[in-house]
Design goal:
Structural class: alpha/beta
Radius of gyration: 16 Å
Distance between the termini: 46 Å
Shape: flat
């Protein structure tokens, strides 16, 4: 990876508690990565942060833990960049609750 200014990896949020996220980010840094792109919204339409607007869409694994907040703390500790990643167009419950949000083609 020599010569690259940024070395990123697309991955999950790194765990379901602060220690796991810190450990994951530390191992990525030791492996030479400078940028973590954690998937915080999966193809199932659930989110991996504590949404005030859509609390019913929080992935159950993260109901009592906010990985986005943990990633902010871990990036400070390890000097990494973090860019959240969302899988779009597989909206699950959000689309069922709000069908007018659907992306449409030129024919409606």
């Amino acid at each position: 990876m020599a010569g690259l200014k940024k070395r990123g990896i697309w991955c999950g949020p790194g765990g379901s508690d602060q220690n796991a996220v810190d450990d994951t980010m530390g191992r990525l840094k030791a492996a030479g990565f400078t940028l973590m792109l954690p998937n915080l919204k999966g193809g199932h339409g659930l989110v991996r942060w504590h949404s005030k607007r859509f609390p019913h869409l929080i992935e159950p694994e993260f109901a009592d833990f906010d990985p986005s907040a943990a990633l902010v703390e871990a990036k400070k500790k390890h000097g990494m960049e973090v860019h959240a990643w969302f899988i779009d167009y597989y909206e699950g419950q959000a689309y069922k609750d709000n069908p007018d949000w659907a992306q449409r083609d030129a024919h409606g």
